[in-house]
């Protein structure tokens, strides 16, 4: 499952670089997230899964969607400026260090600080300081979102519902981010660019979170009482 999630991640951001000459990276993100939202909605309609829970709170859903938007926007900008392997290495190491620091004691936090410092020095020495900051922000948003959702301890229908909330918020925010922060407004999509954005929607928007949820250690300790997001996801009526 973890290898599948990693493959989906690499396919998503590799396709961003493939289509960058035709469509600016942030505009790719805006289109891909809208397509992912539509595909997930169609899937849940076909399967008869209710996406809107009774008593759902708007603020946690907005916070989760904002974190997801920051993660995607920063990673799309990073892979547009640097090699995919460098962004993948920085993002993976930072996410692992942050997750360990959040779950561990002071030694883990000290190791996290030392690791981030070393990665920052490496990024600065290679002239990739901006990419390092973008990747750090993306990793922080990813870990905070993972901690908020506890996605590995959720039932599949609840994870689909929460992912739909994330995609809805991102579909509203990413076009604004593209207009405000995109270094280029290029938008001349050919068939290859459209295919790349569809791949991003399927691999990054849909497949990655579900494969990651199944791969995390907490998935082996799932209990019915843990399969909820407080204030956001509740039992279907």
TrEMBL record:
The chain crosses the membrane at residues 26-44, 56-78, 84-102, 109-125, 131-152, 164-185, 191-216. Keywords: Membrane, Transmembrane, Transmembrane helix. This is Uncharacterized protein. It comes from Thiomonas intermedia (strain K12).
């Amino acid at each position: 499952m973890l290898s599948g999630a990693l493959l989906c991640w690499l396919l998503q951001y590799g396709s961003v670089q493939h289509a960058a000459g035709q469509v600016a990276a942030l505009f790719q993100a805006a289109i891909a997230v809208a397509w992912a939202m539509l595909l997930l909605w169609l899937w849940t309609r076909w399967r008869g899964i209710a996406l809107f829970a009774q008593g759902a709170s708007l603020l946690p859903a907005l916070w989760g969607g904002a974190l997801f938007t920051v993660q995607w926007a920063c990673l799309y900008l990073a892979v547009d400026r640097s090699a995919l392997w460098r962004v993948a290495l920085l993002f993976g190491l930072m996410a692992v260090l942050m997750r360990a620091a959040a779950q561990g004691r002071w030694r883990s936090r000290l190791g996290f600080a030392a690791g981030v410092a070393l990665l920052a020095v490496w990024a600065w020495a290679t002239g990739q300081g901006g990419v390092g900051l973008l990747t750090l922000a993306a990793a922080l948003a990813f870990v905070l979102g993972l901690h908020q959702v506890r996605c590995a301890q959720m039932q599949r229908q609840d994870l689909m519902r929460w992912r739909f909330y994330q995609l809805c918020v991102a579909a509203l925010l990413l076009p604004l981010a593209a207009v405000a922060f995109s270094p280029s407004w290029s938008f001349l999509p050919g068939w290859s660019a459209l295919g790349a954005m569809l791949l991003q929607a399927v691999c990054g928007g849909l497949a990655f979170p579900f494969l990651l949820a199944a791969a995390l250690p907490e998935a082996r300790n799932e209990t019915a009482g843990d399969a909820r997001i407080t204030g956001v996801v509740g039992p279907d009526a």
